[in-house]
Amino acid sequence: MDDSQPTLDHDASDPGYETGDDALFQAPVSAEAVREATREATATAAIAAARSSRGGRFRHILPSRSGKLIAGVVIVGLITLFGIFGPMIAQPPRDSDNPALLPPSPEHWLGTTKLGYDVFSQLAWGTQGSLFIGIVAGIVALVLAVVFGVFAGYFGGVLDELLTLFTNIVLVIPGLPVVMVIAAYVQNAEGLGPLARSSLLVALILGITGWAGSAVVLRAQARSLRTREYVAAARVAGEKPGRIIFVEILPNLVPLLAAQFIFGVIFAVLGEAGLSYLGLGPTGSITLGTMLNDAQTGQAVGTGAWWWFVPPGAIIAALGAGLSLINFAIDEVVNPKLRLAPENAKRQRRAAKAGKGVADTGAFA
């Protein structure tokens, strides 16, 4: 019996030559296939490097060609630029030397109020004041949401139960009545000095009362992230809990934190407008809400002075719409199903036009 091994026609230098115990039972791989695979891998690496050099590594967290994001950024950007640079080109907002209740004209682009104030000037300063209140209140609400949400979700145990209990209590309390009571009490309290009835005080009140909903969302995400492998590895490596939260968990919550911050800004802008309309807003500064209050007390609707109350209302509506569009775009980052929904709808429409049946669940029949 011949125990000699069979002779192979492949050279060991051939890229398709297989070595090892199972080499005799494997199909030979051609050198052309190996070279093709090498070219594809090289091309893929080159494309990835090019995208990384152009900032493409951050592109995966953004919805591709999101019309909501573009429209929202444009609207909010224009309003922000108007609030920053508008006061530089407008006359003093408290200048009453102008004739009263003038309609829009080349001299006064948005007319004047009952006291002779220029509406365009007040609108520029009011936009700046409302943006300030919204940003400050959004930051305060986000910080409190992180403390009561992320910390509770990560640590768990008794601390989680206590923080969650307090969050649920704040969550079920009706927001607007509480804000009205706190604003009325604090603004009339003695010892506050210039802080009483100021924009900063209103922003702090709105931020302190508007964090509970965001804390619930962040707590749920933190509870999910604390069981991930990289968090467990950092804990085993001896990292302190504070560093794990700020280095390992919070960076993975950036889209959600941005969405909650934008929600806080929207809540603050609308809340300030409601407080000011009821006469509980800041008195030492001008905001879009105080403009609406002045128009209401000055009987702008009865006198037909539409230019007095329409512009601030339009700015509030546009700012809320722009921030909401940005928030919707961020939701598509947090929830990939929302990002794929438009493409799935287009695919179903194309299938329907082509004559293919589409089930009620969206699957092709």
UniProtKB/TrEMBL annotation:
Top-level taxon of the source organism: Bacteria
Transmembrane segments: 69-90, 131-155, 162-186, 198-218, 249-270, 306-330
InterPro entries for the chain: BP-dependent_transpt_permease, MetI-like, MetI-like_sf
Keyword Zinc among UniProt keywords: no
Record has Iron as a keyword: no
Signal peptide: none
Region of interest (Disordered), ranges: 1-22
Keywords assigned by UniProt, alphabetized: Cell membrane, Membrane, Transmembrane, Transmembrane helix, Transport
Localization, UniProt: Cell membrane
GO MF entry, a single one: dipeptide transmembrane transporter activity
GO cellular-component term (any): plasma membrane
Protein topology in the membrane: Multi-pass membrane protein
Family statement: Belongs to the binding-protein-dependent transport system permease family.
Alphabetized PANTHER family for the sequence: D,D-DIPEPTIDE TRANSPORT SYSTEM PERMEASE PROTEIN DDPC-RELATED, OLIGOPEPTIDE TRANSPORT SYSTEM PERMEASE PROTEIN APPC
Protein name according to UniProt: ABC transporter permease
Classification of source organism: Bacteria, Bacillati, Actinomycetota, Actinomycetes, Micrococcales
